Amino acid sequence: MKLTKTLLLGSAAGLMAASGAFAADLPVKAKAVEYVKICSLYGAGFYYIPGTDTCIKLGGYLRAEVAFNTNSLYGISNGSPAGAHNRLSNTYSMRAREDLNIDTRTATEYGVVRTFFDGVFTWTTGGYQGSGSATGGTVYTGNLGLNTSGATPALVGSSINGTDGNTSGGSLGVYYAFIQFAGFTMGKAVSQFDAPWTNYPGNNIDSLVGGSGTVTGVNQFTYTADFGQGVTASFSAEDATAYYQAGNVNLTGATAGSMIGGSYGTNAIGGSRSPNLVGMVRVDQAWGMFQASVAAHDNHVAYYGATEATGHPDDKWGWAVQLALSIKNIPTGAGDVINIQGVYTDGATRYNFQNLAGSSYSMFGSSGVAYQSVGFAYAPDTVFVTGGQQETVKTWGFRGAYTHNWDAYWNTALYGAYAQAQYGSTAKTALCGAGGAGGVFGGLAGVTGCNPDFAVGQIGVITRWTPVKNLTFSGDLNWTRLDQKYSGTVGYAGAGTTAKPAALYELKDQDSITLLLRAQRNW
């Protein structure tokens, strides 16, 4: 009996110990789920990042588009191979793009700390230009990235990355990546020189002249002062190398063939020395906006020749000034707006012929007196000859648009742009000789007029339909005319990249007509 009692007590103790062990393994009560909370401090779409006092907003768009009569959706039919206007030129170019932006904001005792990132993933139609070989053939010029051998695809009569159809191609771009804190903007953002609409006073096409437009941002360090009543002023140091160097060209290297191709010599830009210095004052009111901008640009040349011993010109500062005006609430309809801007540059060409428009032209067309006609032009920042100093290229221009809303779903904009470039005596003497009858080009047989000055005029119309919120379909028709100042005829040696043969060509103004169709869903 005593043994039985001992066994029962031992068993009970073991069971209690085991039950304690099992209890230790049972799940404890979970903490309450912390749901994402709406952040109403900075407008719609912001949420608190769980566990923090930082608000975040995700946004972007997906875009599908096709442009006709151009090899580039953002440009006109110019250069090689689009400007050849032959069997090498694209009838259409297509693009699909996804944009993603991330906006974070945190309230602090010094004000709001903001970060902003905007990146794009893009797939675009490529093109082909002549290979330049004696037996003909073409070379693919699309943006496919690198193939398995590490070389850019250069294909003659073969498929494009036949192993996988280039499913890993396309391109990745970073538009904006900046921090804002206590009035400072640090990183890649729209230039403080630009009008608020950058390249788009009312259009979709990117290639308007007549003003600056860093639509994909420029590295900068900026301070903005807010004086209240809608008045702000900014001072900025901005990277000059990516978007603002139109060229420092040694005219001693110019040939007639290179001029017809849109290049007037050897580009001799040196390493970066100073950022562009930008100042801006803006007034934002219910009636619209007024902005005045100035910029200084350092033109720093490498050497006259291939080595240090050849010497170099001194640095020369260029500058630009721009005025922009937006008028809202005009009597023609609710939401109608007029946007206009004008600019003058001296040695800072990209503030007029902005980087997506470019400042080099080479375009071919028909002729009644020669094999074909050709128009060409070029506007760098400065030019010089070996042993001489830099001479600035001066430009002026304007752009603008009027947008009318027919109703809540339809609107139409009429837009236009104009820009003119003017050379000094150094360039005109080197290229055209005294009185336009000598130099590299002016003395050629058949040339009756030689002047490197030129103008570009543009006009267009765009209509947009938004059947539901944040989904827009648009059609943008643009006409661009190159008004060049050369006349007569010239014997051109031809070029394999454009498949142009050696023949007599008429020197003549040229035109480009481009239609851009787009579907875009914002989110």
UniProtKB/TrEMBL annotation:
* One GO CC annotation: cell outer membrane
Q: Which UniProt keywords apply?
A: Cell outer membrane, Ion transport, Membrane, Porin, Signal, Transmembrane, Transmembrane beta strand, Transport
Signal sequence: where?
Answer: 1-23
Entry superkingdom: Bacteria
Q: Name one GO molecular function term.
A: porin activity
Report the main location listed first in the record: membrane
Tell me the function of this protein. Answer: Forms passive diffusion pores that allow small molecular weight hydrophilic materials across the outer membrane.
Q: Where in the cell is it found?
A: Cell outer membrane
Question: Per the UniProt entry, what are the Gene Ontology biological process annotations, in alphabetical order?
Answer: monoatomic ion transport
Q: Is Cell membrane there in the keyword field?
A: no
Topology with regard to the membrane?
Multi-pass membrane protein
Question: Pfam families of this UniProt entry?
Answer: Porin_2 (PF02530)
Q: What is this protein called?
A: Porin
